[in-house]
Amino acid sequence: MKEETRRQEIVRIASVLFKERGYSAVTMRDIANELGIKAASLYNHIKSKQEILHDIIISLAEDFTAGMELIFNANDSNIGKLQRIIELHVHITTNNQYGMASLNNDWMHLEESLDYYLNLRTDYEDNFRNIIKSGIASGEIINVNPEVMLFSILSTLRSLYLWIPKKEDLLQDTLANDLGDVLLKGITL
Amino acid sequence: MKEETRRQEIVRIASVLFKERGYSAVTMRDIANELGIKAASLYNHIKSKQEILHDIIISLAEDFTAGMELIFNANDSNIGKLQRIIELHVHITTNNQYGMASLNNDWMHLEESLDYYLNLRTDYEDNFRNIIKSGIASGEIINVNPEVMLFSILSTLRSLYLWIPKKEDLLQDTLANDLGDVLLKGITL
DNA sequence: CCTCAAAACTAACAATTGTTAGTTAGTTAA
DNA sequence: TTAACTAACTAACAATTGTTAGTTTTGAGG
Predict the structure, then answer these.
(1) Choosing among B93, B104, B151, which should be mutated to test the A contact, i.e. which has the most A CBs within 10 A?
(2) How far apart are CA A136 and CA A38, in angstroms?
(3) Which DSSP letter does residue B154 get?
(4) Mean pLDDT of B56-74
(5) How many residue pairs bridge chain A and chain B with CB atoms within 8 Å of each other?
């Protein structure tokens, strides 16, 4: 484990508060308080509140886009790719449950990096959609509206951050497997 | 159609802004601006900003709890009940896509009514969970961790508000049917 | 012990926040 | 015409916001 810089600590603490209350409802004084220092002292380490949000969201969004790129270009069945996407989400969310809240709910408060974020998200969704469409074309996946499938699976994966912390006992692999069963094979016997 | 009171108009406009930016990032002046009046004038119709949030969230939460109660006590198979829950979400979300954003993301900013809201939500989830467990016991539903199934289905249904406005062409019934297929029967051929 | 940089501090700022008080214009009912 | 009511207004408030300037404390290396 590398040492955590004060800057990283600020971002980490902030992401916890942002998950609880949302970016706009958390003040610099709240963050400073949690660290036992004064708000003004934060500015020795970070440039602005906005920069904290950027740090949290952009690194996560890039992780997803990079992971998706790998899966998309891999030599695998389309169902196999979907299973690997599920694992990607479980993995990233397990390692940063707090940041995932900002990624989902506070992205609209990004300023300079908003367009960049939106592009990353669009790329990600396009790849996801193309995997589903390929799966339908190849007969791996049922012929239902692919938008409904994309939406349904992605909604579940994006909400993982709300749920993983409550089920700490569940192993990452077990969770990814169960989710794969439920999302891909359905729940009907 | 009944006439909309000024108060209802305020709550409706506010819910649109709350969906875009979140409760904390929307000011009384923003809401007033959208109505073409001054912020102070809002107080002729409402008691506080907090009351607007209460209005939006609590009525929706009560709709869900009441709808669930009906379904739970109905004479139907457990899979049938799940399908009716899907229809309940599609129906309520279609009729109030903006309010659903606050229900999902701004409930933590409720003050006096926070406990009441949390109780409604717990009741709802308990009923949902019991339907799934009954379905497993009766052999209608596969024997996978019921928490994973509850989480997966509910996440999708709770995210509908993000997605329904983009697919206005899709009829309520078609959407509920497709969602039922995907969520219950899975997507694998 | 001294130096120097990192990281804390105090004090203050201009802007914005939700809300109140008091007033005014427009509509309805007597 | 008058009286009452509704819903807008202006002006202001105290508190809180993100941030800056300038200063002091701390701790490691020479």
Answers:
(1) B151
(2) 57
(3) H
(4) 98
(5) 131
Q: Would you say the C-beta of A38 is within 7 Å of strand C?
A: yes
CA distance A122 to A134: 18
Nucleotide nearest to A41 (CA to C1'): C8
How far is the C-alpha of B11 from the C-alpha of B175, rounded, in Å? 28
Cβ of B21 near strand C (distance < 7 A) = no
Nearest-angstrom CA–CA distance, B48 and B25: 16
pLDDT at B93 over 80: yes
Q: What is the pLDDT of residues A126-185, one digit of tens each?
A: 999 999 999 999 999 999 999 999 999 999 999 999 999 888 778 899 999 999 999 988
Reported as a single tens digit per residue, the pLDDT across A92-110 is 999 999 999 999 999 999 9
Sign for the pseudo-dihedral over CA of A24, B65, B62, B160 = positive
Q: Name the nearest CA neighbour of B48 among B117, B111, B116, B118.
A: B111
**Gyration radius (Cα) of chain B, Å:** 19
Decide: CB of B6 under 7 A of nucleic strand D: yes
Given a contact cutoff of 8 angstroms between Cβ atoms, the answer to whether B68 and B85 are in contact is yes
pTM beyond 0.90? yes
